[in-house]
Each structure stands twice: as structure tokens, then as C-alpha cells.
Design brief:
The chain has one domain (2-291): Alpha/Beta hydrolase fold, catalytic domain (Rossmann fold), CATH 3.40.50.1820. It has eight helices and ten strands. It is an alpha/beta fold.
């Protein structure tokens, strides 16, 4: 088991590049959050493929909302440090399997179960640190399908979802890897892709998933202009990331605000996602926005 604390001063360098916030809510969540972040390696072992479970914990002793993360094909969590550390800096306890094949959702279910068990173990670094009444899921590419499958499999616990560049169904080798979220009964979903991700995860694929999501579910879809399939792996730019155009920075603010709004952290952040909210008006960088969010 390994631990490392990421100083807030280091994390503050995360938001650089050509992306600028489009309103007060995004401006808040585009910045690094107020919590130092501690990485916990192998807090438990293992999933069905013998992959260890890892976590990023916000500072302090309070129990935090949980975010279960799914890696893309052939990727590990090291590919997504900008995103995962950013989420944790805003108070989400991020847990993930170090598994590059999570599309059917099973390793993510196992990660959540392992985290719940660790939360009850006095000798675990996760002991008492997780608020298991507030759980979300997120993932990139194949991991986006995995996160959707996790929410479908456990919609009682998992009630908020963010998918990055979820693949078109034509790329799925089996139906389970590209689930339709028709079985969701509660919660909130945010489907995000890149405007230049025209082959693997085109906006049309996100439209189809949005349309298959029951209208009773709070749902939003949006396309980041100019972004390609691997942009969520940026650091936050595209250095050493093949097939990347803009980097991860544009994917930091609104996804974090969505999780905050729907996991009981900041109800006011929901205003960004209404029909006349910031995201719909952010046409310089965002297109193809559709939402059924009703802002109180």
C-alpha cells in the first residue's frame, strides 16, 4: 500500500491553456478545489482481473461523497490524473480499479463494494472517509460505458453520472460494453464528448444515449468544440497524449459542477445546466447542448 499527498500549491497549476470559464459557476469549479489530495495505492485487492483498487482522498476527516472512476481501453488511472485529482480537490473521494477493461461495469461494482468494506475497517486508510449515501460514477471511453453499467446495476447507491467520450455502438464487441440507460430509475446523467471525436465517440452517439435516458432522469448532453477522443487524458494540455487537440482543461469545470449539484455538495451549481444556464450559453466552446434540467 502506498500513499502520497499532493500539495494544493502543486495542484493549482492544473488550469492553464486556451480554455476560459463561461460564467461564475464554471469559473469556480474550473479552479482547483480547496482540499489537499492524498493518493492511496492498493487500498484493497482485487477485481475479477486481479487489478488493485486505488483512491484519491480529500483532506480532512469528514466522510466525503464517492466517485467511482472507469478507465478507457488500455489505460490506467495514471492517464487521468488531472481529472481525478481535480475531482478529489473538490471533496469527492475517488475510487477506481487499475483495470483497462471495465466496459461491462463489473470491476466498478467490485471497486465500490471494496471501498464500502474498507470504509468499515478500522485499519484501512478509507475508514470512515466515505459517505456511501452519496455516490456517483464517471468514466472515459470504454470506462464511460462501464460507469453507465455501474449506475444501471446499482441505481439505489449510484445516482450521478458523467461520461466522457462514450463510444459509438459500432465499436462495441458486445452489447454490454455500450449499454442503453433505459433501466435507470433515478439520478442525474451528463454526457460529454469532443467535437473532433467524430469516429470513436461522435456527438451523434451522445445524442442517442441522451434520447434513451428516461425523461424522468435529470439529463444533459454537450460537445466540447475542437476536442478529440483522448483529450480527457491531458495533463491538462496534450503533451505526450496522442490524438489530443485541447487537453483536459475544458472537461474540469462543468463535470465537477454537475457532480457537486447532484451529490448534495452545491445545489446552486445546478443553475449552470438549465435551458438558459451557463452551459447552454457557452457557445464559444460548447455546442449540441441539450438539457431537461429544471432549475428551482
Amino acid at each position: 500500500m502506498s500513499h502520497r499527498t499532493l500539495p494544493l500549491a502543486l495542484l493549482l497549476g492544473a488550469c492553464v491553456g486556451d480554455y476560459a470559464a463561461h460564467g461564475d459557476i464554471e469559473a469556480t469549479y474550473l479552479q482547483t478545489g480547496p482540499y489537499d489530495v492524498t493518493y492511496v495505492g492498493e487500498f484493497a485487492c482485487c477485481d475479477r482481473d486481479d487489478s488493485e483498487f486505488v483512491a484519491w482522498l480529500p483532506g480532512g476527516d469528514a466522510a466525503r461523497p464517492v466517485l467511482v472512476w472507469g478507465n478507457g481501453t488500455a489505460a490506467g488511472t495514471d492517464n487521468y490524473l488531472t481529472l481525478l485529482e481535480h475531482f478529489a480537490s473538490w471533496g469527492f473521494a475517488v475510487v477506481a480499479p487499475e483495470n483497462p477493461g471495465v466496459g461491462d461495469g463489473v470491476p466498478l461494482v467490485e471497486a465500490l463494494d471494496a471501498a464500502a468494506a474498507a470504509n468499515a475497517e478500522a485499519d484501512s486508510p478509507l475508514f470512515g472517509r466515505l459517505d456511501l449515501g452519496r455516490v456517483g460514477a464517471a468514466g472515459h471511453s470504454q470506462g464511460a460505458g462501464g460507469a453507465t453499467n455501474l449506475m444501471r446495476a446499482d441505481n439505489e447507491r449510484v445516482t450521478a453520472l458523467v461520461t466522457f467520450s462514450r463510444p459509438h455502438a459500432q465499436w462495441c464487441t458486445e452489447d454490454a460494453l455500450c449499454p442503453h440507460p433505459t433501466e435507470l430509475e433515478r439520478g442525474a446523467t451528463f454526457y460529454v464528448t469532443g467535437g473532433r471525436d467524430v469516429i470513436l465517440a461522435p456527438p451523434s452517439a451522445q445524442r442517442a444515449v441522451y434520447n434513451h435516458t428516461p425523461d424522468e432522469i435529470r439529463k444533459v448532453r454537450a460537445t466540447l468544440r475542437g476536442a478529440r477522443h483522448t483529450d480527457p487524458e491531458g495533463d491538462p494540455g496534450c503533451e505526450d497524449v496522442p490524438f489530443c487537440a485541447r487537453g483536459a482543461e475544458g472537461f474540469l469545470g462543468y463535470p465537477t459542477a454537475w457532480l457537486a449539484a447532484n451529490l448534495g455538495v452545491d445545489g446552486g451549481a445546478l443553475a449552470a445546466f438549465g435551458p438558459e444556464g451557463e452551459l447552454s450559453e457557452a457557445t464559444e466552446d460548447w455546442s449540441d447542448v441539450r438539457t431537461n434540467v429544471e432549475v428551482p
